[in-house]
Amino acid sequence: MLVWGALGFIGFHLVERLLSDGYKVSVLCRSRARYAEPHWASKVTWYSTENEVCQTSLQAAVASASVIFDLAGSSGAVASNHDPIGSLDSNCRVQLEFLEACAKAAHKPHVIFSSSRLVYGETSAAKVDEKHATRPLSIYAVHKLCIENYLELYSRLGAITHTVCRISNAYGHDCTRLGQGYKIVNSFIIRSLAQLPIVLFGTGEQIRDFIYIDDLTEILIRCALIPAASGETFNIGSGVGHSMMEAAEIIRELTDGPPINFHPWPEDYLAVESGNYVAEISKSHRVLQFLPQFDFCNGINSTITKYRLEQALDLLNPDAAEHVKVMPGAI
What we know:
- There is one protein chain.
- 39% of the residues lie in helices and 15% in strands.
- It has 2 domains: 2-169 and 211-236, NAD(P)-binding Rossmann-like Domain (Rossmann fold, 3-Layer(aba) Sandwich); 178-209 and 240-277 and 295-330, Alpha-Beta Complex (UDP-galactose 4-epimerase, domain 1), CATH 3.90.25.
- It has helices at residues 9-20, 55-63, 77-82, 84-103, 139-156, 184-193, 213-225, 244-255, 267-270, 282-288, 296-310, 318-321; strands at 2-4, 26-29, 45-48, 67-70, 110-116, 161-167, 169-171, 199-201, 207-212, 233-236, 241-243, 261-263.
- The protein has 12 helices and 12 strands.
- The relative contact order is 0.15.
- By secondary structure, the chain is of the alpha/beta class.
- The protein is globular, with a radius of gyration of 19 Å.
């Protein structure tokens, strides 16, 4: 198994799970210097593209595995609208370089791609299934959709097989780094544990579908192991909606945090706000034979417990938590 983007939130947990299951794992990243050394560092084979895509490294990494989890790329809907060319280079261009490496490989790897629920844009359905129209509101989401089409083309050309996972809002303990606003639930927990107010834009009534990291990694692995997942697109979520206000209040109560603050929507965040979203997950249940095992309260309790253990390391003090950007419109 190759995990591309192994030092990010999802990738870190996925590598951990794969190793515990006994798989031989290799990882591909741009640079290890930006991240703390993971505890599993000595148990994997490393490939690096350093500061730019290196075709030789990509080809060697692709050759190391029959299954590739493609978690690479820059994140952030608002950031992508501010820098569309940068988003193009760090998402679409790098994916084409990767797929060319796959096309030159001596085998046909199976690629599991981490897309986003943001490809749907605004939705009117109570639950959104995979056939729903895609109307992205950000360059980031447009590029995710573009990459989905790259994968479809390269599969049709015989270079790869693939599965697309349109992932909803993932959460869970994250020891990779602080300060990434798209991990909104983690940001809420970090701030509330540090006795800083959770910040919501507008009234906090917008509904989201949150999935716990252990459930997410299980689904990703099933996409690799179940032949019927090949060529398919899946919504990956819990199938249950919670308003941002409800999620924040649950976290505030469990952490005994200060009252929630409400701020007006900044214009650039309002522009990418897609409204309510709950994933219809019946297809993933039918094909992958799995339903999420963690409801929101259980997942939050587990996450808070793990973050509390880090308080002794001074990772959750007010000075550190103050720099965690809480941007509900970005997710």
